[in-house]
Structure formats: structure tokens, C-alpha cells
Amino acid sequence: MHVLVVDAANVVGATPDGWWKDREGAAKRLHHQLVVADLPHDEIVLVLEGQAKAGVRPGRDGHVIVVHAPRDGDSAITQAARARAESGDQVTVITADRLLRAAVEATGAQVLSPSWLLSHL
How far apart, in whole angstroms, are the C-alpha atoms of residue 64 and residue 92? Predict the structure, then answer.
């Protein structure tokens, strides 16, 4: 299975559209875009943190799984990438964060930029 793990904060933050005034709404818009997107992945794990968690409830919505980070988003993203890679899935993580990139690459995941994802939504 090919799994895409999305650092929502990084993706939302890549577009200066006023998201910082409505983090919940930005999370909801990204979630909707992922639900209807035609991406080459079997499942998409959308990791939300902070105020963005109020925008989308945790759980599955079709092929999109929403995870609410209990602490910081980076730890939840790394944990999701590791768990999926250990179960044999091919994992791609969307982030621009250099430290997170190194952590998820150590799990065997590939990393793509938020701009890649945004160009496919």
C-alpha cells in the first residue's frame, strides 16, 4: 500500500492566504481537498496539531485518515511514518521541515515538499 502522510501545518503554511486567522478553517479546507484529490496513494494520513484540530474530527473519511497530534505534529508524523513503514507500506511524507525530513527518512519514508502536494490539489 502507498501511504501519504501530510504535515498539515507545513502545507497550510506554504500559502499566505490568511490561514493564521482561521486555523480550523484552513484545516477543514485542506482535508476537503485531500478527500476529493486524485493522488497516486491508497491512503492519506493528515496530521493536525494545535488549533487546527478543531477544524476536522479525528478518524477516517474515505481514504483520508485524520490524526490529532497529542503533543507536537512532528512526533505524530514520525510515529505514523514509522508505523506504516514497519507494516510494509510505501510511505511518502509531505513536509518542508528539515529536522522532520531527517527523522522520517530514517524510517524509510520518501519526502516531498508542500509545493508538490499543492500542485496536485
Answer: 14
Q: DSSP for 35-101, please give it.
A: HH---S-SEEEEEE-GGGGGGS-SEEETTEEEEE-SS-HHHHHHHHHHHHHHTT-EEEEE---HHHH
**Average pLDDT score, the chain:** 95
Tens digit of pLDDT for each residue in 102-112?
A: 999 999 999 99
Q: Indicate the residue type of 45.
A: V
What whole-number distance in Å separates Cα of residue 87 and Cα of residue 84?
5
Its pTM stands at 0.95
CB contact set of 78 (below 8 Å; sequence gap of 6+): 100, 103, 104, 107
